[in-house]
Protein 1
Amino acid sequence: MLEMKTQISIIVCTYNRDKYIYKTLEHIAQDDFPKQHYEIILVDNNSTDRTVPECARFRQNYPDIPFFYFLEANQGLSFARNRGIAEARGDILVFLDDDAFMHKNYLHNLKNNLKNHPASAFGGKIIPEYETGQPPVWMSKWSYIWVSALDKGDKICLFEGKSFPIGANMGFRRTEIPADGFNTTLGRKKGNLMGGEEKDIFNRMKAREAKIYYFPDVEVRHIIPEKRTTRAYIRQLALGVGMSERLRTRKISGTAYLKRILSEIIKWGASCTLCLGYLLKCTPQKGTILIYFRWYVTRGLLSADSKIPR
């Protein structure tokens, strides 16, 4: 049994990321935040690699860290996240990706920020760390989010309008999470790149005027494998975004879906304008990738097929 002093639950959901899962956990353990005030909840979503031995190695090397391993048999990131919520004992729930490395002052900074700001939920800075050593040539501020990176500057602010935290580094006050948690019809399952579950849960919170803060000093480094910088990956990602938006908005209403299609038309205009601008600046890769991405988002949005083509 955990002591009642536990305040923060750090939830790491993983699927076949044995290359980085030990390092992710080790960065948490190396924070000098009092160990009696946090716990690590590891939710394994049916990994078939060496995730289990790597977790056992972590437990052996850091026996004083409150670490709890759970296997979630229902395949899908949303199922894993909801299992993490159910198993966690903390008042504050932090979600980290299984290849995101926590800054050494993360937990102290988070505690101070939550003490001084009435946040129902929060997201922090996510700095990409490319396996290749440098960002792809097509990277721009408009495509930064495709690699799950986030940098809104160095000042605390609210996520307003259509902006929301990214799942690699986000969190909630337990009392503020919607009762049904993450939408299990959305989100990634095994190798597909469906999403939308984060946007969905934050939109539901915003609908009841919950305050969602950006804390710049609650920071992680996020590993970006080379395969996530390829056109094949961008294609799969864009299709997943489109299909997720179709599922999400049609569940709300037919009108919401039609509004999303109208929004897509507007996004096409913006993408074409940006592409022309990059062509004029002699950086065509940054522009053409926006059109490529938009094309496949639209395909996913208009497709009635629930499977992402390979």
Note: The chain has a mean pLDDT of 92.
Protein 2
Amino acid sequence: MSRRNFENWISAFMEYASFSEAPKHMHFWTAVSTLAGALRRQVWIDMAYFKWFPNFYVILVAPPGIVSKSTTASIGMSLLKQVPDIKFGPDVVTWQALVTTFAESTISFQYPQGEFHAQSAITIESSEFGNLLNPQDKEMVDLLVSLWDGKQGAFEKKTKGAGTDIVENPWINLIACTTPAWIAGNFPEYMIGGGFTSRCLFVYADKKAKLVAYPSDLVPTDMVETARKLIQDLGHISTLTGPYVLTPEAKTWGNKWYEAHYESKHITLDDERFGGYLARKQTHIHKLAMILAAAESSHLQITAEHLALANQMVTDLEPDMQFVFSKIGKTEDAVYTERLIWYITKREGCPYAEAYRFVHAYFPKMQDFEAVVTGAVKSGYLILKPKGNEMWVYPAR
């Protein structure tokens, strides 16, 4: 295919997915994960001492039943599954499952002409992150860290009674779905911002973009044809091979960004908690720049505009990172206090007795509840005002 159907694959995909309830930024990052799965390890940015490959660990995070996270991810993954030679990984990550899947996915590509390279590239789609990975499995987490970094060479795993399994140039691209509660219950404080989580991009939403009771009533009649064209373009993108080159303007932009990044204070993020992420932000941006370039052209060239947009899209995720990890390290009292403040804020105020009933199961003693309300008032989250014959609790404005 000499020409693509769409000028920009991401824009076309977001239009294709726009009839669902999920926010636009979730569709954007689903598109990114889909394109990454098509590109695999066949393109890269060469940094002499290492290479950046366009794989991502995208984690869609939302409270249960809010934005149909798994449905959102599957819109992109269902297209990718119809592209030849694209391999998908296991639903549960174990050494045995990974080795088997890598072995079955090994193929070769040419770059330059006549020179063949092996790759064992898989994309993993997980509707429940907790079913996919146990964060306490340090050996597996360390492997995912190493694979994200795209280290060149063979991956070896010694197994009892089965010798050593060797996989050529393994590569993993991941999109998974979870809730803030699962993260709080499974990721200890010391893991946040470093190691594995600093290599993840957490895409958070706490409300629907719109209400769509019956999506089938909204989608256009040419939906099937649009999907066919998106798949066809993905197939073309999956044939790209070789190194991406930054234009001189892109290098200038990147140098200025790098200096500013390390000389600035990051107000929205706690450096102690998110220092690992901040150290890898440059990598996130350049990985995304490759995706943005591939979305609109087969020329392996990254412009300053690609880097600027990549920086914007990654940076836009940062304010919500506080929500994603907000419950980690907090006592149950603090968690239920937050729930109380949320309840009162959502209702724009309620009677004191109603607020007590909302958390009565956790604060059965009135004096404990009164202490919580007093603390919230003194810290500026709530205010107390009489209304008629009752005392009401209001969110502080």
Note: The chain has a mean pLDDT of 90.
Protein 3
Amino acid sequence: FQNQAVADSAAAYQNALMWAVTGNRANADKARDILNAWSASLTMITGADGPLGAGLQAFKFVNAAELLRHTGYDGWAEQDIARCERSFLDVWYPAVSGYMLYANGNWDLTSLQTILAIGVFCEQPTLFEDALRFAAAGAGNGSIPHRVVTGAGQGQEAGRDQGHEQLAVGLTGDLAQCAWNQGVDLWGFEDNRILANFEYAARYNLGGDVPFTPDLDRTGKYIKTAVSATSRGNLPPIYEMAYAHYAGVRGLDAPYTKAAV
């Protein structure tokens, strides 16, 4: 299930995106077929890592569905759209609904972005608002105040390794953009705290020095005492959207994010 979900969620999203950009109907048809196959067959998400997989992959499935539904595509039957909504609400959402507060690191952040997106696609304001409350003041590692643990932008996973840290930076950007599209400004929350996190991660992974404050994660299991050089210098494609927002929309300086892009 997990490997198939990774591949299919990426394919659904990328095909839907290609349709939205190019108007090539074959891409929309392929995204529709993938969404229909999953909504018709998936009945439950199980396993210790099931909630993490759901948080990571459902976000792409939901965004694929959102693109198909709102970019003029007329090839997705209403009954299939309705079944897709039910799948998101009845199968995917229960796997992530508790925000996975028991887990270290990014687990609750993945659930946060997915619940936000499901709330939008399924037009469930209660889910959307619940996710916003968690983003602002949730108890887990994924809320913005706990994700960005210092005003200098240090991320909660910066002392673990740069792969997990930059994953978290990108996930935070995902949820900020999702909220922004609905008129809610998480990008600017707490004096652009997310920008500080992007700048910190970009600066360190470009070879620069960053300050570090010892940090205990919210589960109380792991204390980080120094910034980790593990996987340092690998720059995943997470910086473009943040740069487009902070520099392009807000007109703010984001020099390290720009250099990473």
Note: Strands lie at 215-216, 223-224.
Protein 4
Amino acid sequence: MCSFIRMRKFLLICFFCCSALVLLKGQTIFTDRPTVATSPNTLPVKWLQLETGFQYQIRDVDLLGNLAPGLKFENILFNGMLLRYGLTENFELRFNQSIQQNRFRLNGETTADDGVDLAPTSIGVKWRLVKDNEKWPDIAILANYGNSVLTDNGGGSVVDFSLLFNSMVFGDVSFDYNVGVLLENELNLRTYTYSFVLAKALNEKLGGFFELYGSQTEDLNALLNVDMGLTYLVSNTFQLDIYAGTGFSELSPNIMFGFGVSKLFLPKE
């Protein structure tokens, strides 16, 4: 039984890694990555988009009675994959499956390691409510449900809801902002989330952004991070991104960085 589970994990990991390498022809791409903030834009009907990337985070461990000064916690996201599909003009389906590793490090040595494994699977929807209204920003609702259905690493259900907004603040500078709630621990633990990102097109290919995001749980464990990065449009259907950031709260990373690729697939005519 254990051999079957390991083989299943290996095959799934290979599939999700290889899926990031597939390229097809298409038209202009607009992505949700690499920022934490999500745009209210939805994909046109029958359009499919793959967004994936690598992320590394490290932070100091500050535990009560910690007997190992210098202990650090690392989170490595090998493939944060998001699939998006336009179901109707203002409604898209979303599927998220990541491959990650968590470990503790002390003086360059690994002291504890969870190993590489599939993260909980998440399915969701994005419903655009307002678009191109002179009096209102663009608005959408995002809802996701996650659970450990493809792995045996445990963990209960996770549900999150967010309101997504977008406005043009001046010229070609856009402002995305989200507010939401995350329900964990059999939906008994609430975490309130927020994110704000300013983005600007630097030329026809290159874009830049600056982002502030965080969360607040009911027991006052706050999270506050910032990041900034660049996106590069290789073609009308293929985009690269790179970013780096840090945090200002106890649970925030000291350093984080990542890069990724996004690809748009058009339906056959």
Note: The helical segments are 2-19.
